[in-house]
Known about the structure:
The complex is a heterodimer of chains A (399) and B (277).
Chain A: H1 3-23, H2 29-38, H3 48-72, H4 77-102, H5 110-132, H6 136-158, H7 161-181, H8 187-208, H9 217-239, H10 244-250, H11 263-285, H12 288-304, H13 314-337, E1 343-344, E2 347-348, H14 362-368
Antiparallel strand pairs in A: 1-2
Helix pairs in contact in A: 1-2, 3-5, 4-5, 5-6, 6-7, 7-8, 7-9, 8-9, 9-12, 11-12
Chain B: H1 2-10, H2 16-26, E1 31-32, H3 34-63, H4 65-86, H5 102-124, H6 143-166, H7 173-192, H8 198-219, H9 223-242, H10 248-273
Helix pairs in contact in B: 1-2, 3-4, 3-5, 4-5, 6-7, 7-8, 7-9, 8-9
Amino acid sequence: MIALYETGEHRVAVTEESGRWKEAGLISPEQAAAVAERYRPELVRVNFFIRILLALFTALGVVALVALPAVILDVEELGMSLLFLISAPICAWVADRKLIAGRSLYRCGAEEVLLILAVSFFALAVAIPLIDGGAERLGGLAAHGILLAGASLLAVRYGYALAAFGAMVALSALPFHLADAMHWQQVNLARLVLLLLLIATGIWAQLRLRHREKLPRGSLWSLETVRLAAWAGIYLDVNLYAHRLLWREWLGSSPGAHEIPWTDPLCAALTGLFPVAALVLGIGRRDRALLWFAVLSGIVSILTLKYYVHLGYLAEELTAAGLFLAGLAFALMRWLRTGIDSCRGAFTAEPLLEPRLFGMDAEALAAIQPLAPGTRATEGEGFHPGGGSFGGGGATGGY
Amino acid sequence: MQEALNDLEESGILNPDQGALLRRIYGRELFSVYWELRLLLYAGILTLTTGLGLLIAKYFASIGHLALLSAIALGCAGCFAYCLRRGGGFSPDKLPAPDAAYDYVLLLGCLLLGTFQGYLELRYQLLAQYWNLWLLGGGLWDSALRENALVFGALLVAAGAIQTRRGWKRHFLPVHLHLGVNVLLAALVSGVGSRGIGPAYLTGLLLAGFGSAFYAQRARSFAFLLYALLYGYLGVTIFVFDNSRWDVEGFIFYFLVTSAALVTSLVAFHRRFRSAE
């Protein structure tokens, strides 16, 4: 990541975290103001909603700016390609040199969208002449490769989690695009390559995350995105039986045979075990991202497993599953609350800090879920270690 | 974060107890699963109500409509009765939930009420061809329903304003405003393209948009600036496109000029109100 962000993000993180401490009532507003003053970031930031607006209108303006000469001069394919080739480095230069290095903008929307447009324009500049020259597949593949490389570069250099997600999507589509461009006949082989790619990137991201304390925040979020995308991709692959036909072909099963003895139960077992594995890892490492993945994929498994393992009718299964999930949640809450100081080991069912999703603040989260039950308003009293309704797991009270 | 906590403690901004607690949280020696358990509970309630709905559909013929409707109504009334009884009476201020189940029983009651309405309409066709009045948003492009949406959105905003002024349940205001402003602005945008009354809707949209932007600046709640600008821009663009005879260059020029003006205005707005803080 660029040095400006690597050094500046630390102050941004402390300032934003102090806001969460204040929201949770762990520190007073005066203390939060003192933290914000001491760690005043040098990077320029904007509110999350203004960031969305800046990104949207910058994109609209730049696309119009590129389209205007194209329409006025009535350019053909080669002219468009030239126009994109000129626009791409200009966008990248304005974003990197003028806005980020010059004005220290940090996730303000405008510079992010300019960098994304630079990558897209470059991909179009390369693809258009190839497609125009008759090499349609090669043009598409070249554009795909540029998008993948560009998104990866943005994630590595600027720590953009959205770019990391884009890179994972491009990586996932690559085997299929390659299969199409190279005229591979076996689509299932592409699926297998995708599975291997996802496993490799998932392991790589997990290994990098072992040193999460030393990573800048942007890199951490990008790696979290890569890891979760890999987990989700592998889970979907297993749940959708993506390789069923490949196994069938490799094992020499006859076309009339209904099922292969071991692959279907294996996929069903993995569909059930995957969330459990995420849960075990999440609890063992106290990894919130994995815990959320485990809960969500567990629910999906409950809803979809019936198509593999026929235990009963959908209505009865859903009713039983709903009772089980709600009962489990209540039982766990009760079990945690009856522990010493409302804790069992390191775990507590009491709220400590407001959730944060890739830097989205409380207002942003509140805006996207105004009707969800259980949203917690700011409590003036806050968390009381050593007394009150929750003892703080052994921490002494008195502040 | 541990380095920052040490620094803040040494500088006297945090006291030792606060520092110790925060160090435990960031060191994951104290790990809250509050939101994860809430998610599990929420999913459980939704799955349960879906399963119950399917069970009803499955045994519908053998149970009988009246019995089913009675069961749903009883369940709904039971949920609301539980909430009224456990809620501890009306208070103009925010009250903590008496137990972990409270919010979810209320949610279950509301879902059962929705099921009851749907079943009633499906079986007895209470509103017949006007059935989509149940679904306000689904008929937004129908002029009659658009007017309903306008009234509904305005009522929500007005209800939020009145209760805040009177000091009743001030914490409901964000829900009223987010929902009300979105419904109101969407209804106004949908009317901008209508023949004859388009300018009136555009005027209303601009007034409501200014109101939303003013509130955003005053309450430092910038989601309302987003609503004002997005809906406002969409409405103005529809109006301009409907009422102009420009060629392609003209439209592109319109986007270029308006987006440049909006970006400049947003930067000025941010500088003036320091939106990140």
